[in-house]
Amino acid sequence: MFENSSEEMVYHKLLLLYILKKSDMALTNSQITQVVLDTEMINYFSLQTLLSELVETGLLTTYKESDKEFYTLTSNGLDSLEYFFSRIPECVLEKVGAYIDENKSNLLEDTQIKAGFVKQSDIEYIVNLRVIENQSNLIDLNLNVSSEKQANMICNNWKQNASDLYGEILSLLIENR
């Protein structure tokens, strides 16, 4: 399929840009890894190198939130993908597109429930809990707790039960007492 390894590298970079475009959201390294390994498109070590190169060349950018690093397309990345889109075989587009469509809720779930905390002092931690839908906050709750153990427990419980807890909080706030 490829005449040389640089042509294959360009193809794989385009594929990564397409994955981010098709998913229509920022993805963590582990989410991108899941997509490429499950679709058997790129091996793990090549993937890590390619992601670094895409960031270095300004086609992707990263940001950190809740101790996770997210990758997003830059405008240059989007322009490059649109310009060279025809180099990605249709069968690959279909395979990756189908995978993302089938697994988007799982990918979305990972990025839409957020929990983290910051140490303010030896006896004060600020816990931030969020649920995001369509890039809008449904809830953004900050709690002041007295220990790192409490902060961790709250974050873990939120990650496991956010939809139930959000519903309960909403019900409690709406109820007439």
Automatic annotation (TrEMBL):
Note the Pfam families from the entry. DUF4364 (PF14277)
Where are the membrane-spanning stretches?
A: none
What protein name applies here?
A: DUF4364 family protein
What is the species of this protein? Peptacetobacter hominis
